Amino acid sequence: MKEGQRLWTRDELILAMNLYCKLPFGRLHNRNPEIIHLASLIDRTPSSVALKLVNFASLDPSIIESGRTGASNTSKLDKEIWSEFYNNWDILPYESEKLLANYEQKPIESLLQLEEPTVFMEGKTREQLIRVRINQSFFRKAILASYNGTCCITGLQQPELLIAGHIMPWSKDEKNRLNPRNGILINALHDKAFEIGLITIDQSFKVQVSSILHKQQNNSVIQDHFLRYDGKPIIEPTRFLPDLAFLNYHNTNVFKG
Predict the structure, then answer these.
(1) pLDDT one-digit tens code per residue, 233-247
(2) What's the pTM value of the predicted model, to 2 decimals?
(3) Are 35 and 46 in contact (CB under 8 A)?
(4) 93 and 12 within one domain
(5) DSSP letter assigned to residue 200
(6) For residues 247 and 37, what is the distance between their CA atoms, to the nearest angstrom?
(7) Residue 253: is it exposed, middle or buried by C-beta count within 10 angstroms (0-12/13-18/19+)?
(8) Which of 25, 119, 159, 256 could disulfide-link 197, Cβ–Cβ 3.0 to 4.6 Å?
């Protein structure tokens, strides 16, 4: 460590990891306003924050598998925080958002965007509702960033029409509800079809369309909106590639082949 530099703290690294999850890979640079803002919160330079995000990229399996590289000077604590996030998606996203709110000196609900839908759940306290909304917001931002705001099937890039969908259903795996590798960015129509098993994504990351829809191949609407994509590869994310175990669950238990 150079003279005058100070070690990164655990809290600072958690905030950096939080931002890493929510930024597209191509925006991990010191001119990014969000990086500049975090730098001001933790009293570091934008360059040092950007470098730390690139350090995290070097630990990201999807980045490594794609042949891209991040920085090579990751610290032991970098690796610990990465591992802590990767093994505790049910806990760390909310804790990191709560930490961010503390640094912002704002109530945590102020981090929510106005356009995000309100969640009503019977028997839940206000604090529980806020946690749900914060977690949903984090997951959506992470999926939007991973797919660069692009529907993985059609290429649609209108945010209001895109859903951060779950591969393993929300109700089936609480621990991985916020795991970005359990998510895909998909337009609302195909999200519903995916949810009820009329389409799936196979182990080669190709779209598969149910025989139920194939029986309607003479229907021009079905042809245009579904059958044209059958067997076509999805637009893969720049990171957090869908986990094959989650895809296998959907292929086996949800898809109506």
Answers:
(1) 999 999 899 999 999
(2) 0.87
(3) yes
(4) yes
(5) E
(6) 37
(7) exposed
(8) 256
